[in-house]
Amino acid sequence: MYKIAVVGDYDSIYGFATLGLGICPVKTREETVGTLRRLVEEEYGIIYITEAAAAMAEDELEEYREKTLPAIIQIPGVSGNTGAGVEGVKKTVEQAVGSDILFGGVS
Amino acid sequence: MAAKQVNPTRMELTRLKKKRVTAIRGHKLLKDKRDELMRQYLDLVRENMEVRKKVEAGIRSANKNFVIAKAGMSEAALNTALMAPKQEVSLEAGEKNVMSVDIPTFEYKTRTADENDIYSYGFAFTSSDLDGAVKSLADILPDMIRLAEVEKACQLMAAEIEKTRRRVNALEHVIIPETEESIKYITMKLDENERSTQIRLMKVKDMMLEEAHHYSEK
To answer: Which of B 116-135 lie inside 8 A of A, CB atoms?
Structure first.
C-alpha cells in the first residue's frame, strides 16, 4: 500500500491536504532534498512536486528517473506555470527519439 | 580495419562464425524490440502531453479558486478548516511489463466510500469559494494519478529505448563488421597457407624425382 505526497511551498499545496494527500511544505533546497529522501524511504508511490521546488533539487530528481517507483511528477505551483513539466516530457522524447519530433513547434 | 589481432586458426574461424550468427540474430531481435518500444512510446507520450496539459490547466484554475477563497477568509479560519483532512487516499501500485520494461500502474482508493466526501469542515464558518476550490482540486485528482502513471512510463521507456538503440548501433556498426573482417582475414590466411603447403610438396616431389632418376619432371 502506497501513499501520495505533495512537495512544494505551502501556498501551492495546502489544498491537496483536503484530498487526503500528504503535504510537505518546503522552502529551501536542503529541505526539499531531505524531504524527498524521506518520502522515498517511506514508500510513497507518487510524489507531486511543484516546478519551483523541483528546480531546486534537479539532480536529486534525476536519480529517481529510472526507478519504477516512486513516480515524481512536476506540477505547477501557485506562482504560475514555468513550463518545466512540459519541458520534462519533451526531454524524454529527445532521449528516446534523438530529437524532439512531436512537440517541437507547439509548446 | 585489422586493428584486432586474431589467430588464423580453424578453431578461431569456427568461433567467429558462431559469434557472427549470434550477433546478427541479436541485432535483429534488438531492432524489433526498439521499433516496438518506439511505437508504444509515441502513443504514450502523446497521451502524456495531453493529460499533462489538462492537469496543469486544472491545477491553475484550482489555485485561482484557492486564492479567492483565501481572500475571503482569515488565515486562521482557513487553516482550521483544512487542518484535519477527512479523506485519505491510498494507492495500489502494480507493475506492468511492456517489452521488458517494468512500468507502474496506479489505482487509488479513497478512505470513505463517497468520493465527494471531501469537505473537512463545517459550512458555517467558511466561505463558499473554499468549497468550489476543494471540489475543483478533487476533480482533477484522477487525472493527476493517470498523469503520474503515464509520465513515469514514458520516462522509463525513454531510458530503455535509448539503451536499446545504443546496443543496436554497437552491433550494427562495430561488432558485426569487425567479426566479418576477422573472418575474411582468417579465411584468406588459411587459403594462403594451404597454397604454400601445396607448392612446397610439389617442390619436394621434384627434388626427390631428380635424385632418384636423374631427370626433371616437365
So the answer is: 118-120, 133-134
**A78 contacts on B by Cβ (under 8 Å):** 63, 66-67
**CATH code given to domain A3-97:** 3.40.50.10580
pTM to 2 decimals?
0.80
Domains and CATH numbers, chain B: 24-158 (1.10.287.3240)
Do residue A4 and residue B91 have CB atoms under 8 angstroms apart? yes
- As given in the structure block, the three cell numbers for residue A35 are 524531504
Which ipTM was obtained for this model? 0.84
Q: Which of B85, B147, B156 sits opposite A17 (nearest CB)?
A: B85
Q: Tell me the per-residue pLDDT of B121-179, one tens digit each, with 9 for 90 and over.
A: 777 667 777 777 888 888 888 888 888 888 888 888 988 999 999 999 999 999 999 99
| CA dihedral of A22, A27, A31, A36, whole degrees rounded to 10 | 40
